[in-house]
Amino acid sequence: MVAPISLRVVAQVLASWVVLAAGLAQAPPPADGTTAPDFVSHTVDGQAVRLADFAGKIVVLDFWATWCGPCIGSMPHLQEVAAAHRDELVVLAVCTSDARGKFDEWVKANAGKYPDLRFTCDPNDRDSDTFEDRASQKHYRVAGLPTKFVIGRDGKIALGILGLETDDRRLEAGLARAGVAIDDATATAGEAQVKAVAERLAREAAERARRPTPAFFPAVMRLQHGDPLPACTLLDADGKEFGMDRFAGKPVIVAMTPASGAPRQLLQEIALRYQALGVTTLAVMPFTAVDEDGKGAVMGSFLRGDKMWDGIGNLLLRAGVSLLPKDMPREVATDEAFARKAERPAEAPVTLLPVGSKAPEFACQDLARARRCGSRTSPARSSWSTSGRRGAARAKPRCRTCSRWRRRMRRRAWWSWRRAPTMVVRTSSRSCG
After folding, report:
1. Helices 170-178 and 69-84, interaxial angle, to 10°?
2. I need a labelling partner for 89 at 20 to 30 A (CA). Which of 14, 193, 395, 423 fits?
3. Does residue 241 share a domain with residue 376?
4. Helices (H) and strands (E) in the chain, counts
């Protein structure tokens, strides 16, 4: 039997995103006015396409993925713009952070809907060992999908567009900057959206700076620092079973990840960096687990980002690893950072009222309608209860139409309450002028 503390495990929890969390990129994307980096992508037929092939043309570079709902949702508008200006611009839709098989399947089924879009796929797809070298991350450092770049005839970025907004006209604003003839009202609306989004992102960045993400977390899901590691039986690439006791006495960095998103290159980089210290990396794709006696202790978890190496370093120090000077974190965590949090008391179960039971009476106020109608009545005097009874005093609205409408709704509510043993709430909206 291995001693409970002989195996130290650092668990890395990776998330699969539809829209990637902003701020995880280690560097910002290329700024407006800088030269767009060249890269290669492949069509569904395997033909290589480079961004430089469109030199001298206005290019809309769209990074998207088949699993990304906002990406697919933005394509009809992208097709509309491409069709309206097909003589002066090229739309290059590059599938990224996805599997090549998914790309081929999607393009064959849907490309006909978007005849003016050129669909390609980054060769560094999810199933490759070079996934971390995909252009969207290595060269353009996008913070989410979809991300579009409007590139002018001079090869410089006119505008970068992150995400999808309601009635999004930022693309037209970028094309206007690049010299495409766009309606003035549309371009102005797009520039207003660009400004609004920039202000919102600035507020979010200020909030993140005020409450920065820690370099590590002294917990993994429900397991806190120092908890015994539940042993499990895993299957290796050959289908043979093995237990975590194989790594007894060694620090292990475990990546819990789906097979399609295994960070092979990252794990290899971590292994090369810490192999001299006896650290082992392990990518675990969840199959089946068998509960046994604990064979180790959990150190904590970390996220990928600019603080990743600090997080790994602190957790390895806590696991008893003597780090090299170059691998020391910028700030060494104290014992207080690993203090166990008090367990939250169990919440009392909440049960809904069964169908057919009498609904309890309660009071409510319709403040919004009082404001729209310009009522002089205070909120307390315009209160109602579920029994349909009027408040203490009659409201004196300025609008005679609203007054008649209120009386009609009172009568309707009263009769509904008298006839039905259960409560059905119906809401309606009406305003003056």
Report:
1. 40
2. 193
3. no
4. 9, 17
